[in-house]
Design brief:
This protein is α+β, with helices and mostly antiparallel strands. It is built from eight helices and 13 strands. It has helices at residues 25-37, 46-53, 97-105, 123-128, 166-173, 182-190, 228-242, 256-264; strands spanning 18-22, 58-63, 66-75, 80-88, 113-118, 131-142, 157-160, 195-201, 204-213, 218-225, 247-252, 268-278, 289-291.
């Protein structure tokens, strides 16, 4: 997620001694702690998994040896990258450090299409920086319950994910994500305290989802499914397996059945961001996309 960009507005030159360099996993733990203070509610194991996606795609700015800014720009393929974690410590906002961090990191994406999720107040700033809105991700939160008028359960077996499923899940995931992300998924699906379930129909993947502990409650993502009934079954199964009192799912409003499903199981909208891209929208199967993995890495 990108919260407080400074591109497109005048800013003072960065202070003397300010440097931007690639972040280590230890550096990034501090950045994730900042996002918790900002109310982004990150997952507790996010940082370690995110570095697997692109170890060179995380940057921090330092002033006097202290981390004061951050940005991630993860390259998933030769065609696609995702920007997130763009923030500056509150003590240093409005001083030009954010823009300097952005400028130092942006070449890492090369000529790739870049995606990001922008909070409403900053969308016009990203538009000036060359991003165009594609759709809105709406965070639905609450205690999931069965639909008021339940339908027959989806045919298939809802089972825990294990190593034998990884190839098939990675192939299925590619229908709802703009690039292959096998390495990231392997870490995400098997991380400590991450619970993953896959629905198999005649041996083929018809949906999968992951739930993880966050600083507040539990987050579900990704949530990909062949139908709203399968998506609801995954949410119910994941919540029951972990004893989750409340869940949060970032759902694309372009998938109207997904929004309707969330409301049927008792979730309420609580937050939204705009998915924006440089260049054209890298089309995916929006009908099967019920919840994005994270607002920081897409």
């Amino acid at each position: 997620m990108s919260d407080r960009p400074t591109t497109g507005r005048a800013a003072a030159p960065p202070r003397a001694g300010f440097t931007v360099a690639r972040a280590s996993p230890a550096d990034w733990k501090q950045v994730v702690e900042w996002t918790a203070l900002e109310g982004w509610n990150p997952g507790r194991a996010d940082a370690a998994c995110f570095h697997v996606a692109d170890p060179a795609g995380f940057f921090v700015g330092r002033l006097g040896g202290r981390i004061v800014s951050a940005i991630s720009l993860v390259t998933y393929s030769p065609e696609y990258a995702f920007l997130g974690y763009y923030l500056v410590h509150p003590e240093h906002r409005g001083t030009g450090l954010g823009l300097a961090t952005w400028t130092a990191a942006l070449p890492h994406a090369g000529s790739r299409t870049i995606g990001l999720d922008a909070v409403p107040a900053q969308q016009s700033t990203y538009t000036r920086a060359g991003f165009a809105p594609a759709y809105t991700n709406v965070r639905y939160s609450g205690r999931p319950r069965p639909p008021a008028a339940p339908t027959a359960p989806p045919a298939g077996a809802l089972v825990p994910v294990d190593a034998s499923h990884l190839d098939a899940i990675a192939a299925y995931d590619r229908t709802g994500f703009p690039a292959d992300r096998r390495a990231f998924l392997t870490a995400w699906l098997t991380a400590p305290d991450h619970t993953a379930r896959v629905l198999l129909r005649d041996g083929a993947v018809a949906g999968y989802g992951v739930i993880r502990p966050a600083h507040q409650g539990r987050r579900v993502g990704p949530l990909f499914a062949a139908s709203p009934e399968i998506a609801a079954s995954l949410v119910s199964g994941l919540a029951a397996r972990t004893g989750a009192a409340a869940v949060a799912i970032d759902m694309p409003d372009i998938n109207k059945p997904a929004i309707a499903m969330a409301e049927r199981i008792g979730l309420k909208p609580s937050f939204e961001t705009a998915r924006m891209y440089t260049g054209s929208d890298p089309k995916v199967d929006y009908a099967g996309l019920f919840g994005v993995t994270s607002l920081e890495l897409g």
